[in-house]
Amino acid sequence: MSVGNRVFLKRDLPSKELVEAFKEIPAANIEDCMNRIFGLNPEIKLMSTPKQNMVGVALTVKTRAGDNLMIHQALEMAGEGDIIIVSNEGDRSRALIGEVMAQYAQCTRKVAGLVFDGAIRDIDEISKMPLSIYASGYTPSGPFKEGPGEVNVPIAIGGVIVMPGDILVGDSDGVIVIPKADAETVLAEAKIVCKKDAEKVQAAIHGTANKNWVNEKLVKKECEFIDKTY
Q: Helix or strand or coil: residue 188?
């Protein structure tokens, strides 16, 4: 049986123009348009020093804990604009990649980013790289290369389901997942949220923020205000 040990060679992809349109929008503003439930767990952190936001399409990998054979396969399939995103059974004991694979991903395959629900290694070198690399930590312990695993299948990572071809956006705050079927709607809403958020920042800076909503919500929640010490 090939289930659990298979590679799908094709994905349904959004248009390049649609993907590119997310590059100037912070991850937080986009996430606010999706009811704040499509951000990966903050345990998965930025480990490198990119000069711009990570934006691309998901090339998914489901691998056995501590094994990177299918990550190597995904690298052979990946190209510019792809983000390899890896489910690793939540394992933290072994690094899934190191500097060699990271440089290969960046320089030879020219991917847009790498996202792991596990550890990496060679952090001194990777931390200086301009390729966006997200992981849950780092360790000197290396991976196995035995499989099994799957490529271009639905995965769960950081509390979020990711489908092959979904749009991923990452910045210093973390990574969010935009379901490809909803991407056009999310983009339109994110542009509005981004504009409103900029206005709120200016109001906070200049002392013109309207905070009446705080009292109104507490009253609605039947909060008791007590005019004496505890």
A: helix
- CB atoms under 10 Å from CB of 92, counted, come to 18
- Here the tokens at position 165 are 């071809």
With tokens 């990271």, the residue in question is 102
Within-domain flag for 226: no
For residue 122, the cross-strand partners are none
H or E element at residue 157: strand 155-157
Q: Is residue 225 part of a domain?
A: no
Instruction: Divide the 230 residues of the chain into consecutive groups of 10 and give the mean pLDDT of each group.
Output: 92 97 96 96 98 97 97 97 96 97 98 98 98 98 97 98 98 98 97 94 96 96 97
Answer whether 190's CB lies under 8 Å from 33's CB: yes
| DSSP label of 64 | -
Cα–Cα–Cα angle for 157, 85, 118, nearest 5°?
Answer: 60
Q: Give the C-alpha separation, 119 to 186, whole Å.
A: 31
Domain range for 82 is 11-191
SS3 51: coil
pLDDT, position 214: 97
Provide the domain count of the chain.
Answer: 1
SS3 percent helix, strand, coil of the chain, rounded to 5, is 30, 25, 45
Domain assignment present for residue 224? The answer is no
For 200, the token pair is 């709120």
- Burial string for 68-77 (b: 16+ CB within 10 Å, else e) reads bbbbebbbeb
pLDDT at 1: 61
Nearest to 60 by CA among 116, 135, 110, 14: 116
